[in-house]
C-alpha cells in the first residue's frame, strides 16, 4: 500500500516540497498529491509587475510536474482534521474528503486590512493574482494625473510604488508609511531609496497612519484627507485561517508551531512550510514570512519526510538570511545584506546591477520550484516499512 502524502497549496513552498518529494521517493511506494485551486504557478513576488501591466510567463503545473509522479488536484481546501488525518476539499466534482499518511501544509498567507475601516471595500490588494489583475484593470482605466496611493512602507509597498511610477509616469503615485521610508536598511541604502523615489516623482507620506479608506480618498489618523483614485493595500500578510480552526498547535497569528524538521509539535505527521509555519531559524529567532524563509523550510520538510520513510539521514538545511532583494522598477534595485537573524549589515548593492541581481533571484526562485533537486541526478528511494513505522512511533512519543 502506498504512503499517501498530500501537499496543500502550490505556492513557492508547496510546489517545491511536492516536486522534491516526488523526485526523491519511489512512485511505487509513495503517492504525492498536490492540492491547489489554480492550474498555474503564481510568481507572487512579481504580482506588482502584473498589476503594472506587464505580462508574465505562464507556468502551468501540468508542464512543471510532467513525468514526476505528482498528482495535481484542482480544488479549494475547506478544512483539515489533523486527528482523523483527512482533508476536506471542494473542486469541479463537488466536495470530497482526502485521507493522508503525511500532510504538508503550505496554504500560505493573504492580505489583511488590519481592521481599518473601508479597506476591504475600497482598497486593492496584490497578495494574490486575482487581486493583482483587478488592480491592473483599474490602473489601465485611470486618466493621466490620477492619484495612486500605496499604503504600507515595507518591501511590497516600495516595490509596488516604484513599479507603478515607472510603468505609468503619467500617474501621480504616492506611498504612505508608518515610519521613515526604508528605515530598516542601511543609511546608504535608504539614501538610494529616497533618490529613486524622487527621480520617479513619488510623493512620500512618512509617520502616517491610515484610519479609513473611502471611495476616492483615504483619511489619516490625524484627519487629513488624501485624494486617491486607486488605493493599494500592502500593510502585511495574514496566514490562511484553516490551521487555527484545527487541533494543531498554532500561534496567535494562526501559524502552525513546528520543530527543526518543520513537523508540527502537536501532530508529527503534519509538516508546515512557508508563511503557514512558525519555525525558529539558526540564529534563534522566528523566521519571517518570506520566500527566503519558505524555500529552505520546504526543503527541510521534504528531506525530513524522505529520511523518516526511507531510513536515510536528512542533511542540515541552513535556516537563516543573507540579503533582502528589492526591485525599484525594472532598471533600479537595492540589495541589502543582512545577518543570519535578518539584522541589517552596512553593505548594500544599488542601481542597475542590483536590479539585475534581483531579477536573477526571481528567476531562480521559479526555476527552483520546477527543479527542486537543483538539477542534481534524481534518485528515488524505496520506502523502508520498518523505518516508517519506527519513525512514526518515535515521533508520537516525542
Automatic annotation (TrEMBL):
A Pfam family that the UniProt record links to this protein: Pyr_redox_2
Alphabetized GO MF terms: oxidoreductase activity
Cofactors demanded by this protein: FAD
Cited SUPFAM superfamilies: FAD/NAD(P)-binding domain
Enzyme Commission number(s) from the entry: 1.6.5.-
Entry annotated with the keyword Flavoprotein: yes
Alphabetical keyword list: FAD, Flavoprotein, Oxidoreductase
InterPro entries membership: FAD/NAD-bd_sf, FAD/NAD-binding_dom, NADH-Q_oxidoreductase
Keyword Ligase appears in the UniProt entry: no
Broadest EC class assigned to this enzyme: oxidoreductase
Residues in FAD/NAD(P)-binding domain copies: 4-283
Family note: Belongs to the NADH dehydrogenase family.
Name of this protein: NAD(P)/FAD-dependent oxidoreductase
Source species: Glycomyces mayteni
Amino acid at each position: 500500500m502506498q504512503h499517501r502524502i498530500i501537499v496543500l497549496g502550490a505556492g513557492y513552498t508547496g510546489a517545491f516540497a511536492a516536486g522534491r518529494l516526488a523526485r526523491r521517493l519511489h512512485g511505487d511506494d509513495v503517492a504525492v498529491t498536490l492540492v491547489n485551486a489554480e492550474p498555474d504557478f503564481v510568481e507572487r513576488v512579481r504580482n506588482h509587475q502584473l498589476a503594472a501591466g506587464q505580462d508574465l510567463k505562464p507556468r502551468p503545473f501540468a508542464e512543471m510536474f510532467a513525468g514526476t509522479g505528482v498528482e495535481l488536484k484542482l480544488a479549494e481546501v475547506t478544512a483539515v482534521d489533523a486527528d482523523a488525518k483527512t482533508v476536506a476539499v471542494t473542486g469541479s466534482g463537488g466536495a470530497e474528503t482526502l485521507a493522508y499518511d503525511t500532510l504538508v501544509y503550505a496554504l500560505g498567507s493573504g492580505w489583511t486590512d488590519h481592521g481599518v475601516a473601508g479597506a476591504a471595500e475600497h482598497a486593492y490588494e496584490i497578495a494574490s493574482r486575482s487581486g493583482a489583475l483587478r488592480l491592473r484593470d483599474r490602473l489601465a482605466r485611470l486618466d493621466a494625473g490620477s492619484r495612486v496611493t500605496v499604503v504600507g512602507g515595507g518591501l511590497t509597498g516600495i516595490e509596488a510604488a516604484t513599479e507603478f511610477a515607472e510603468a505609468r509616469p503619467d500617474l501621480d503615485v504616492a506611498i504612505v508609511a508608518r515610519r521613515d521610508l526604508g528605515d530598516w536598511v542601511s543609511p546608504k541604502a535608504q539614501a538610494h531609496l529616497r533618490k529613486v523615489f524622487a527621480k520617479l516623482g513619488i510623493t512620500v507620506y512618512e509617520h502616517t497612519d491610515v484610519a479609513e479608506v473611502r471611495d476616492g480618498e483615504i483619511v489619516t489618523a490625524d484627519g487629513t484627507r488624501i485624494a486617491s483614485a486607486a488605493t493599494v493595500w500592502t500593510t502585511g500578510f495574514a496566514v490562511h485561517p484553516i490551521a487555527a480552526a484545527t487541533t494543531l498547535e498554532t500561534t496567535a497569528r494562526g501559524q502552525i508551531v513546528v520543530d527543526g524538521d518543520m513537523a508540527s509539535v502537536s501532530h508529527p505527521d503534519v509538516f508546515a512550510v512557508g508563511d503557514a509555519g512558525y519555525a525558529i531559524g539558526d540564529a534563534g529567532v522566528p523566521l519571517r514570512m518570506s520566500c527566503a524563509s519558505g524555500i529552505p523550510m520546504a526543503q527541510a520538510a521534504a528531506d525530513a519526510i524522505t529520511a523518516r520513510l526511507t531510513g536515510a539521514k536528512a542533511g542540515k538545511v541552513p535556516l537563516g538570511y543573507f540579503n533582502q532583494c528589492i526591485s525599484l522598477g525594472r532598471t533600479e534595485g537595492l540589495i541589502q545584506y543582512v545577518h543570519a537573524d535578518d539584522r541589517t549589515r552596512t553593505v548594500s548593492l544599488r542601481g542597475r546591477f542590483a536590479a539585475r541581481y534581483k531579477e536573477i533571484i526571481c528567476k531562480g526562485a521559479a526555476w527552483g520550484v520546477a527543479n527542486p533537486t537543483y538539477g542534481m541526478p534524481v534518485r528515488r528511494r524505496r520506502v523502508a516499512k520498518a523505518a516508517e513505522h519506527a519513525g512514526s512511533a518515535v515521533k508520537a512519543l516525542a
